[in-house]
């Protein structure tokens, strides 16, 4: 199945939706979906239909990661709400954001073009404001998210992969890219791989969101590490250094990504939704969500300059 075909089935409400919470099932019903199953009881191995899975709790997320890779039939696409925000408000917002995307085929084509340009470039300049340029120098070999046009059975596809061109430093710091310069950004999103980590970082991230929605947000990087962070016009560098001091990667950048969705209106930056990352522009991320949060700083409308 082609990715755009799956997304068209989502828009037409023809997919089987699998959730781990009856209240979330009711949200999908409100949006016009009619075919549902419960995550705990569903036989994924025997399934042959394309499914959209939205999980709002960590136990469900852990089971998916442990049991379902290469062990599920049909096409499997999921939204990991538990890692971001599993609240009904955030889930409702994310569903609507997917439905609001004007043209799935054009969006995917834009993603593929950006991958082609990025993978053939020596460096990429990001223009996000007056005298604000962030430059990413790419390694000869880079790690990227999955962007296959043909979806395969047995794979667990994150819906976020469809709406961004993502280059990551997974193997090591600077394994794929090294960034220097300044980025002006609108808002942020964040995720954690455990409830303990989510609880630990909640006060910091709540403060960051509350400041960032005021505007005047920017960061500076040197040798792929954030050296200055301003949120809502306030210098937040010291707090970031303290919060990430003992982490594996510190404030080094782990993601360098470009959104490809022409959303009809600006995201609500108060809501921690993975769908906000897809807006046309770019985002950089820190952390690997194991010992700290993974935080993305999203610059909507940033202009990309590919240098070959």
TrEMBL record:
Domain Crocagin biosynthetic protein CgnE/B: 12-306
Protein name in UniProt: Crocagin biosynthetic protein CgnE/B domain-containing protein
Highest classification ranks of the organism: Bacteria, Pseudomonadati, Pseudomonadota, Gammaproteobacteria, Thiotrichales
């Amino acid at each position: 199945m082609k990715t755009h075909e799956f997304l068209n089935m989502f828009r037409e409400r023809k997919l089987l939706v699998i959730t781990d919470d009856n209240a979330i099932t009711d949200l999908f019903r409100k949006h016009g979906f009619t075919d549902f199953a419960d995550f705990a009881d569903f036989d994924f191995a025997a399934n042959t239909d394309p499914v959209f899975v939205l999980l709002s709790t960590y136990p469900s997320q852990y089971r998916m990661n442990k049991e379902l890779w290469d062990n599920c039939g049909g096409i499997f696409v999921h939204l990991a709400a538990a890692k971001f925000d599993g609240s009904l408000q955030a889930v409702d917002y994310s569903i609507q954001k997917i439905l609001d995307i004007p043209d799935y085929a054009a969006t995917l084509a834009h993603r593929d073009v950006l991958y082609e340009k990025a993978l053939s470039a020596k460096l990429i300049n990001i223009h996000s404001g007056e005298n604000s340029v962030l430059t990413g120098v790419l390694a000869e070999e880079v790690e990227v998210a999955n962007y296959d046009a043909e979806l395969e059975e047995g794979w667990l596809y994150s819906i976020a992969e469809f709406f961004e061109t993502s280059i990551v430093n997974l193997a090591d710091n600077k394994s794929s890219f090294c960034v220097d310069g300044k980025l002006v950004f609108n808002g942020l999103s964040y995720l954690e791989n455990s409830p303990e980590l989510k609880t630990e970082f909640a006060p910091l991230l709540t403060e960051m969101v509350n400041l960032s929605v005021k505007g005047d947000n920017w960061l500076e990087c040197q040798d792929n590490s954030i050296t200055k962070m301003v949120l809502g016009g306030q210098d937040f560098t010291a707090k970031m250094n303290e919060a990430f001091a003992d982490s594996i990667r510190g404030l080094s950048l782990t993601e360098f990504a470009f959104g490809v969705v022409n959303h009809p209106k600006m995201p609500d930056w108060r809501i921690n939704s993975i769908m906000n990352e897809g807006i046309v522009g770019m985002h950089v991320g820190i952390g690997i969500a194991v010992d700290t949060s993974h935080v993305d700083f999203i610059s909507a409308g940033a202009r990309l300059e590919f240098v070959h």
